[in-house]
Each structure stands twice: as C-alpha cells, then as structure tokens.
C-alpha cells in the first residue's frame, strides 16, 4: 500500500510506493483528492512594499577586520505585503568594506520591489527570477527580497520558516563568535569573556602578519583551554607562502578552520594552501556564486564552504550551495550573517533545515550591535534554539 503525507499546500504529496503501478494508482487518487476535496483559492498578489534604512552601531567603535574598521553596520529592511494583508520581511546588509552603500542598496530594493508588485506572492522561484534580472550585482538586496518572499510564504501557511525549507533537522544551532583585530592580549581577554558566557567556538580575525597572528592564536588557546574550537579568518590578507607559514606556526594550537586566507579570485593559491596545511581551508569570499561553489566542491579545491545569505543573494542560492557541498562531501556552515536579528533568524532557519551543516554558525553577532529594531533569539549556553513561531520567530520592538 502506498503512503502519502498531508501538507498545508494543496498541490504537494510525498508518495512512497512498492512499484510503478502503486505509484500510478496513488498519483491518480491524490489528484482526485486534490480536485474534489480542496477548494481553489484566488492567487495572492503582492500588493505593496516598504523599505526603511537602519544603522546598527557596534558596541565597540574600533571593531575591525583586515584593512577595514567597521564601527557601524548599515542596512535596509524590506517588507512585502500581500493583498490579504500578510507581510514578509527581509534584511539587506550594506557592507561598506565590500563596496556596498546604504543608498545603493535602498535604490536596488526599490527597483526590485516595483518589478514584482502585482505578481503571485507565493511564487518564490518566479519572483526571484524577476528580481535577479532587475539589476546586476547587489546580492544583499536580492537576498533580502528572497528572505521576504520566504517569510511571506511561511506566514500565509501559518508555519515556521523552516517548514517551507524542508523541515527542521535540528532544534538548536551552536554559535561561533568573531574576535575583532586587536592586540594579542586584547583578543585573549575578549575570547575568555565569550567562553565564560558559554560560547565554545571563536574566530580570530587575522591581519596578515604570520608571527603576530600566530601570537593571537597562541594566547587565545592558552586562555580558553582545549575544549573550545578556534578558527582563523585573515579576510584575504595573506599570499600563498605567508598563509602556509602561518598555518604551520599554529598547528600545535589545534585550529579548526582557516577561512579565506588569500584573495577571492586567487583560486589556485587557495587550492595550493588547502593541499599543504594540516587544518581545513574554507572558502568565503571565493564562494559568492553558485557556479563558484560548483567548481570549488566538484574539483575538491577546498575543505569547506562558508554560506551567507547576503553574499550569495538569498536562501535559494544558499540551499543550492549546501546541496553541492553535500553531493561532493565538502563541509559547510552558515557564516557571518551580520546585521539585524531579522537576518540572523532567516539564517538560523536555513541552518535548521540543512542536514549537512557540520560546524558552528556565525549567527549571534547581533549581540554586539545596537539599535536593532527586532527582538527575539536569546542565546543560551552558546546556542540558539530554532523558533517554532510562525515565520522567522523575531518581532518588531515596541516603539
């Protein structure tokens, strides 16, 4: 006997059958059930949209990565409203160190929203095809549109976001916190502060000096002990030989991941480093597009891929990238989705839905940002519990 499970969407049935005849007969019965028992409803249309600018100052005005200080994280929030009043929201991070501006992000969102007003609110793939064709680049804006469309679908169906992404594979997600470039002693103290709060994963931002960066790793390891996972992210600050030198200097300190040590376009060097160091090498800036991840994973040029909704242009692309990693047995995790809790919530639901996320995710940087218009997502013992509320599980703060 075939088995099929009911779902909120009238046109979806999962059928498991013993043979082809069972599949055929089950499919006929399902189509009959759908046509006779489920009333057709008018197509929901996207009626309107709003876009607002937000600025989230860092609690540490001197927070920096290699080559850039980032005292404030600017972004935009897009809200799509269907003609029944249901809304979906997305956050676009305007990363100045990646060449984006808040005004440019706002204008990109404006252009994209105008193109999808009046379209089927639940047709995410079709709407994102229109969005991607509206403007070149500006993946954070495209990512916000993708997130808003997914949030809207979840709210129409009255389910948590993870349900429209395939369901929940984990109830909690361990978190990794990022350590800004500072003196080795200051980095050590901040690492100790975070691990005392329950975090068990930290990432040290490196400056591109093998000796000084190795000293940061050494002091952090001495401060946090051997039960904490340490990652290092030079943000492309190294060249091939200096990256290998650094990696060998810190081998004794059990570094879990070396993230994007060289320039994003220098895939040959990234692959050379991965083949010549003991620790796993992770692609970040080199993994912006699906095509790049296809090449990196199929040819096994790296050991892991860092997934980010803003950088990759949305949930659909991130899910595809994760599947490519799974197919090719390459590690992946959700990286630094820095911005409002709204963005972190979207990334959290993606992490919950993907079975092959195999390391801590960088989803708690909102803790160091101020003036967030959203609340929710309480970090407990270095983990986030995946919300079961309708949509993302975060909400607007009271005015």
UniProtKB/TrEMBL annotation:
It holds the Pfam family MR_MLE_C. Keywords: Isomerase, Metal-binding. GO terms for molecular function: magnesium ion binding; racemase and epimerase activity. Transmembrane segments: none annotated. InterPro entries: Enolase-like_C_sf, Enolase-like_N, Enolase_C-like, Mandel_Rmase/mucon_lact_enz_CS, Mandelate_racemase_C, Mandelate_racemase_N_dom. Residues 184-280 form the Mandelate racemase/muconate lactonizing enzyme C-terminal domain. GO terms for biological process: amino acid catabolic process; peptide metabolic process. SUPFAM superfamilies: Enolase C-terminal domain-like, Enolase N-terminal domain-like. It comes from the Bacteria. PANTHER family: O-SUCCINYLBENZOATE SYNTHASE, O-SUCCINYLBENZOATE SYNTHASE-RELATED. Belongs to the mandelate racemase/muconate lactonizing enzyme family. This is Mandelate racemase/muconate lactonizing enzyme C-terminal domain-containing protein. The lineage of its organism: Bacteria, Pseudomonadati, Pseudomonadota, Alphaproteobacteria, Hyphomicrobiales.
